[in-house]
Amino acid sequence: MSPKPILIAQISDLHIKAPGSLAYGRVDTAAALTRCVAALNALTPRPDLVVISGDLADTPTEQEYAHLFQLLAPLEIPFVAVPGNHDSRELMRAAFPNPAFPTEGPFNQLHPIRELDVVLLDSSVPGEPHGELDAGSLQWLEAVLSASDQRPALLFLHHPPFRTGIWHMDRQNLRNAADFATVVERYPWVRLVGAGHVHRATTTAFAGTVATICPAPNHAVALDLSEQFAPSFRIEPPAFHLHAWFEGGAFGEVVTHLVPIGTFDGPHPFFGIDGRLL
Ligand SMILES: [Fe+2]
Ligand SMILES: [Fe+2]
Question: Which family does this protein fall into (predicted)?
Answer without folding.
Answer: Belongs to the cyclic nucleotide phosphodiesterase class-III family.
